[in-house]
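Quick one - first record:
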Amino acid sequence: MSLLSVQNLTLSIHSFDILHDVSFNIDAGEIVAITGESGSGKSMTALAAMQLLPQGARTTGRIMLGEDDITTWDEPALCGLRGNDIGMVFQEPMTALNPVKTIGDQVAETILVHERTTKAQAHKRAAETLERVGLPNDRFPLSRFPHELSGGQRQRVVIAMAIALRPRLLIADEPTTALDVTTQAQILALLVRLAREDGMGLMMITHDLAVVAAMADRIIVMRKGEVVEQGATVQLLHDMQHPYTKMLFAASAHEVTLPDTNATAPLLEVKGVCRDYRTPRKTVFGKPGKFRAVNNLSFSLNRGERLGLVGESGCGKSTLTRALLGLEAVSEGTITLRGEPVFTGTKPNLAVRRHMQVVFQDPYGSFNPRHRVARQITEPFYLLDTPPTGAARQQAIDDALIAVGLTPADADKYIHEFSGGQRQRIAIARALIIRPDLIIFDEAVSALDVSVRAQILDLLAELCASHNLSYLFISHDLSVVRTITDRVLVMKSGEIVEQGKTEEIFTNPQHPYTKSLIDAAPVLPDLKGLTA
C-alpha cells in the first residue's frame, strides 16, 4: 500500500478549474518530484494533499494517506494531521518563521500543539531536532531569532519544524529557489538524508530540473493542472514521451550564442573599493565595531562586454551593486563610469547615474501596480535634463517595447495583466529606454520558469547584437552565467578570489572556492536529441 495515493483529483476554485484528474502515488521512503511551469498546479496539488485550500475550493476524487481518505475529514481532524503525519517546508523561510519568536520556541511549538508534554521536554526535543538538521545547540542556541541566521540556516529551522514529530510525509515546496548553490546542495542533501533515515515520503516541488534529476526517485510533470507524464527518473530522462516534457528539459539546458564584441575601451572601473558598516558597541562606553562587507575590490568592465559576478549569499554582491548604482557611498576607493566618478563627495553623481540602469530579481515587486506600463517604463526620463515629450516620448515607449518583443499596445495595460516573463521584458524595456551605457542585472532570471528563462536569455543575446549592450550579470545560477557572459568574477567574503574568461573559469577553476561552487551546482545529465 502506498503512503500517499492521489486518485483522480479534480479541483476548482469558484468557476476556475485548477486541477484535472490528477493521479499519482508516493511510497514510504520514496522521493517524488513534481515539476512544471508556474501555473501548472504543482503548489495547489501540495496544498490539496494537506487540505489547506482557499475558500470556494471544491474537489472530487480521493487523497488516501495510508487507508484514510483525508478529503472526508473535518477541520479538527485535519489540524491533528498537519505537522503530525504530514509536514511542509515552504519556499521563503523568512515569511514562514515568526520574527518575534526564538527558533527554539517555534520548533517546540509544533511538539506542544500535538503532544501533551512539558515546555522543558519540548525544548529538549527541539534542540535534538535542530541538531539533526545541522544546527547544534552549542553554536545555534534555542534563544536565537530568525533574523540572526542566514537564509540556509533559516531553511534548516523550517525543516526542523516540519520533521519535529517524524511525519510520514514531508512536502517541500520550492525549498531552495532563493538559496545559493552551496547552500542549496546542503539543504537538498539534508532532505534526502532525512527521507532515507526516517523512511519518510518526500514530495519535492520544484522547477529546477537539474535538482529533480539528481535527487528524485520518480518525476511527475504537470502542465495546466494535468499530469502529462510520470515515471522513474532514469527511465523518464532517457525516454521522454510527451512533447512538453522534452521542451522543459531542453529549455533547462538552453544555451545562447552571444555576438562577438571588440571590448577594449574601459567603461566601468572599480579601484580599491571598500565598504564598512558599523556594528553595535560591546560595552556601554566602548567604541562601535566595524564590519567590512567589501574589501579592496578592483576590476573593470569594457564597453560592449558582458561581465558575470557569482558568489554565495553574504559575499558582498548586493553591497557592491548598491555602490555601483550610487545608492551607497564607499569607505575607500573609487568607482568611475566613462571616466567620471559615480560619487561626488558622498553624494551620487546624477550626470553619471543616468548612464546606468538596473533590472531587479522580482519583476512584479519592482513595479507600481497602480500605474500603466507607459508610465512605468518612462521613469528613467526623470534622470534626463530634457526628457522627450509628445510624439518623441511615445516613439521612445514604442521602440523600447518592440525591442523586448512586446507591442506598443501593451503600454496602456497594467502590470498585473502580464505573465512573469512579460513583466521581466517590461523591466528590461524600462532599463533600455534611455539607452544607458551599462545595465546591471541583479538575479534577473532566478525567479523565472526554465522556458521563460530561456526566452529572456535569448532576448539578451538579441539585444547585445542590436544595442551593443554592456552589462554586469549577478546570479547564483552558474549555468546561466556560463552562457550569458564573456568574463566572470568570483566573489567570497567581500573579495574577488578569481576572475577571467567565463569558459576558462568553468572548465579550469584555479581557486578552491571556485571549484566548490562549480561542484555544488546541480547539473542536468546529457540528454541527446532534445529541442526547446
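second record:
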Amino acid sequence: MPMPTIRGSGRQSQLYVAGKPIRLLSGEIHNSSSSSLTYMDKVVWPALRPLHMNNVIVPVYWECVEPEEGIFDFNLVDGLISQARREGVTLTLLWFGLWKNSGSTYIPQWAKLDRVRFPYMQSNGVDEEAVFHKADVTLESVTPFCQEAVQADAKAFRQLMRHIHTLDPDAGTVIMVQVENEIGILGSSRDYSPLAEAAFHAPIPAAVAEAFSVSGTWQEAFADEADELFMACQFAQAINIITQAGFEEHPILYYVNAWLEQFPARAGQYPTGGPVFKVRKMWRIMAPNLALFAPDIYVEQFRDVCDEYASDGNPLFIPETRGSKDTVSGLFYAIGKHNALCFAPFGIEDLLRGDSGLGDEEKRMLNIPLDARNADQIQIGRTLAQTYQLIAGMDDLIREAHRDNRIQGFMQYHDRGTVLKFSQFTAKVTYGSAGGFFGPPPSEHDPVAGGFLIEISANEFILAGVSCIVSFYANDKRAVGVLRKEEGSFTAAGWQRGRILNGDEQMIHRFGCEPSVLRIKLYEY
C-alpha cells in the first residue's frame, strides 16, 4: 500500500492516504488529554463522535516515551492507535519533544535536570516588554545550538517512528507527524547563550550565503533581520535532523507549525525563528525534509494568513485555529479558496460541552472574547459538525472544481460582501442573513458569513455557506431568471434533493445560521 503523500502544489495540492485522496476534517485535542488513555476514553472520544471528523490531532510526549534515558515506553502510543482504529479515524501526531510553544517543558525529567548536556537559551536581559519576560536572562528552553540535545531528541523520535512503523506499517492510522510545536524563542530577539554567540559571530553557512547572495557574519549579511534569520536557520537545521531520523524509520509526512506574528510584531514577542511566513525561504533551505509549513491561526486576519501560507506552492494546512463565530466561515474559505488539506480547531473535545477550558489570559492570547457564552460554544460545535458532514459529502466535487478552477470561496472580515466572477455569470455575495419577512432578525451570536460557489456548468451552480445572501448577474448584462432551485445535500450516492424552491423561496438565495447547500440553474431573458 502506498505511503501518505501530497501530490501537486499550492491550491492544486491533494493529500493521499492509502492511495486515495482525503481532506482532514480534524481537530486538535488539548495538550494533556492524550497523556491518559482512560481520560481519552471517558472524556475525549465521546465528545468527538458527534463532530463527523475523519482525523484527530493528538500530542505524543518525549517525557512519556523516554521516561528514563535509553528506556522507551510506547504504551500511550499503542493505546492511542488502538482507540483511533476503534473510532474509525486517522491520527496526526504532535511530537512534543525539545520545544513546545518555544519552551522545553515536555523534555524528560532527566534532561531537565542536566543543564550541562541540555543548556537553556539566554536573553540579553534588555527587552522589558517581552511576552514572557523574566528578570533572569535564562529562558526555560533548550538552545537549538546544542547538538547533543538535538541528537537526543532525534534518537527518541527515531525510536518512536520505528515503533509506529511496526504497529502501522502501511500508515493507515498514523498518517502525518508534526515535529515539535510552535518553536522559536520568546523573551529575546535571539539566543545569547555561549553556543549561540559563537555561531552568531561566525560566517554564515555556505548554503545561506549562496541562496541569499550575501556573505560575512549574520550581522554583516542581514543587518536588522539578522537575529530572526539566525534563529530560523538554527531551528530549521535542528528540525531537519529530527525529521530525518523519523523519516528513515517510517517515510510518512512530516511538517511544522507556526505561532504567527501579532502586534507588536517584534522579534521575541512571538517565537522568533519559527516558520512564520517571512522566513519561509530560510526554512525551505535548511529543512528540506518537511512536507509543508502550517499556520496556527488565532488572529482576526484569517483570510490574509490563508492567502500567505497557500502561496509559493505551499499546501494550506491548518492544524490549529480557535473555536469562535468565524470558525465555520474560515473552514468554508480555506477549502473554497485554497483547497485546504486540513482544518482543525484547537481544544476540539470542549466545543460541544460549551467549556473551552481556557482562562482569561489564555483567551486573550488566542483572541477569543472573554464573555464568550457556553451556549455560543455549543452552537459553534454543532455548526462545525454540520459543516464537516456537508463537506465530506461533496469533497470529490470540491477537488474536481479546484482542479478545473471552477470554485471560489469567501469569508467576511470587516466588509459587507464580495463579487465572484464566473464564465457567464457574476455572483454578488452580501454578508449577513436577511431578517424580517425572510426569517428571524440577525443576532450578534450568528456565525460570521462564509461559503463557496462551484460552477457545475456555465449556468448551473452549487452554493454552500452560512449567514449570507447570493445574487446573480449576467456578464452580458441581460436579465437573469431561475430555471430550477433545489435545497439538498451530497452523499456517496450523489446529490440528494430536498425541496424544490419557488415563489417566495426563489426570490432570494439566502443562507441562515446553519450551513446549507443550494443547487441553482439560471437562464437569461
